Give the backbone structure.
Amino acid sequence: MDSLPRNSPPRDLPPSGALGQAPVAATLLLAAADRRGEWWKRRSALIAAAVFFIAMAWPFLRRGENSEFVVCYLRAAHRMLAGQIIHRDEPTAYAYPPAMAMLTAPLAQLPAKTALVVWYLVNVVAMSFVVAGAWRLLGGPPLTRLHGRWVAVFWLGVLLAFRFASAPLENQQFDVVIAALLVAGCLCLRRGRDLAGAVWLGAAAAMKCTPLLFAPYLAWRGRPRAACVLALGAIVLNRLPDFFWPQAGGQSYLGDWCGTFLAKVGRSAPGVWDSDLVLNQSLSGLVNRFAQSGLPGSADPLPSGLAALSPETVAWIRWWTYGTGLILLAVTAWRFGRPGQPWMAAGVDSQDDRDAGPSPLGLEAAALACLMLLLSPMSSKAHYVVLVLPCIAFAVAYVERRDAWLRVLLPVLLLTGPLTSKGLTGKALGDLTLAWGFPTWFALALLLAVWRLLPAKQAETTAAGPLAGRVGKAA
C-alpha cells in the first residue's frame, strides 16, 4: 500500500499557509457585504427622499408661468398688494381664504419662474418635515439610522402614501405646507406645549378650514384654551391682509371669500364646489356622484356637478352625506374615550418625544386627518397628503401585529391608493377610479384601521403607546 512521505503534507489540504487564510478572507468578504447592505438600509430613507424630490422637480416646474401656482396664487397676491379684490368667480379662481395669498406676497416680488423655484424648495422642506414629524409621532427611530423591522415599516408607508404625497407637488398647491403645520402642532401637543400647538394648528386652519376639526378635539381632550387659540389664530391670520393692504372699496378679504365661495356650500348640494365633481374625493363628492350616475361603467361622460338636481335628490344627498359624517364622528369620539380625559391619563407617552413607542396622540391625529378629508366640502387628491400620518401608523401596526383585520385592509388600501395613479392605469381608467371614489374609500379604510389601533379602553393603554411591541424592540 502506497504511503505518503513522512514529512510531506497531506494531498487533500491546501498549500502551506492557505489553511487559515481562506476562511478569514471569506469572513471579511461576508462582513463587508453585510456592512454595505446595512449602509443601504440605514440610509434608504435619505436615498428615497433624494430620488423623490429629483423626480418631482420636472412635473412641478415644467409649466412655468402657466402653472397653477403662478396663475392662481401669485395672481391673487399681486391683486392683494394692489388693494384689489382677490376672490372673483373666474376660471382658475382663487377660492381659498386670504391667508395663502398673504403668505404668497413675498414671492410676488420675484420673477414668476424664480418664485416657482423658491416655492418648490419650500415644498421640499415642508414635505421632509411632514414625513420626519409623522415618523416621530408614531415612535420611529431616526430616519438616518433605519434598521431591523423599521426598514419594512418605512417602505410599506412609502408604498401607501406615495401617490398622495406626489399629488400636491404636481398641482403646486399649499397642501404640503398645511400638512407640515399640522404635524408641527401635533408635535408641540405631544411635548405638552398646548398653546404653541394650537398656534400651529390655527395657522393651518387659516389656509383651509378642515384643520378646524382639531378645535373640538382639543376641547374634548380638556384643552378649551388651546381650542380657542386655534380658532382665534385662524381668524386673525385671515384679517391681517385688511390691515396691510386694505382694499380701495373698503371691503374685507375674509368677507369677500365668505360671500363669494363659502356661502355656496349652504346654497348648493353637498359635493358641489368650484371644480369638476369627479375631482372631489370627499364623502360629499362620492355621494353626489352616486346620486347622479350611480356606479359609472366608463370614464366618459362623468358627472360635472353642474347638473340641475331636483329638491328630492338634493335632500337625499344631504341626508346621506351628513348622516354618514355624523356616524364617523360619533365612532371616532367613542374610540377616543370620554370627554375631558387628559392625554397623559389616556396613555400618551412622556413629553420627551425621543421615547420609543407610537404616541396615542399621533394615532388620534391620524384619525382626524382622515376625517378632515372625508367631511370637507371638497377634497382633491392634493389634499390627501395629510394621510402620510395614518399611512405610517398602518405600516407600523401591520409589521408589528399579527392582525387578520389589517391583513384584509392592506389589499384594499393598495387597490384604492397606489394603483389609482394614471401613470399605471392610463388616463381613462384613472378618471374612472376617481369617479368610483377610490381615494375616498382609501381614506375610509385607513380610518377603520386607525379605529382598530386605538386602545379599546383608556386604562389598557400603557405609557409606551398601544403599538409598542416587536417593532419598538427592534429599534
